[in-house]
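Before a colleague's protein record goes any further, I have to sign it off. Thanks in advance; the entry in question is below:
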Amino acid sequence: MQAVVYARALRPLLFLLPPDTAHELAFMALGPVEHIGWVRACFRALAGTRHAPNGRIATRVMGLDFPSVVGLAGGFDKNARRPRALAALGFGHLELGTVTARSQAANPRPNLFRLRADRALVNRLGFPNEGAEQLAARLRDVRREGRAPVGVPIGVSIGKSRVVPVDDLAAVVADYVAAFDAVHGVADFVVVNVSSPNTAGLRTMQARDHALALLSALRARASKGERLLVKIAPDLTDAQLEDVLSVVDEVGLDGVVATNTTIARVGLATSAAEVEAIGAGGLSGPPLR
């Protein structure tokens, strides 16, 4: 309840700023929570994660204990800058990233847009991140002996580096493998993102032959007990979905993350002219749900 009150009070102020600026301010504000133990403990107490009635919001999936069924999706903390702070806010798991084998900048601005009437966002960021090795180093530092643990399962989402041509399947697979090799040792589960609409051609990796080649290669790299999932688009046809799920079964993945953002623009309260002016990108928020 406290978090809801704070959010309602702060939202009008944050909405006076461009969305990317508001995002960075949020990260700055979480700095003390990330790095100061007693501040983190206060936030954890406010979130009430240790006092769930009868454990009703807790669950166990893939052999992992999730203190809450509500987790943080990939895209917010792309570089593992605030994992302990975010866990202290009450999330039951964190999906960090999406991270790529090679560091890369965001797509040209503007690349993040609010649809206020729909309480939604459109983004075409395109996996901006510091690289898989850098993310892994941060998580390794957080989890090393003598540092406070995050306390919830941590997943890392991996994607394709922009410079790797999507029509060179062998190069794409090698790029994903490099990202996987960097992060799998510090993650409780790894999510293979083949469904972002903001990396040109990436969604073609959901086609059966491409998905089978990629996911088989990654499954072969995973040690026994390491959890591997795939993130799919919400825009797949039933036939495309059946193809992806057949690969999931054949390869023996541990789960499916449903879903990424959508390229659809159906049933929005925002005017058609405003939506058209924004242009391409992935839509998230209540319209996606």
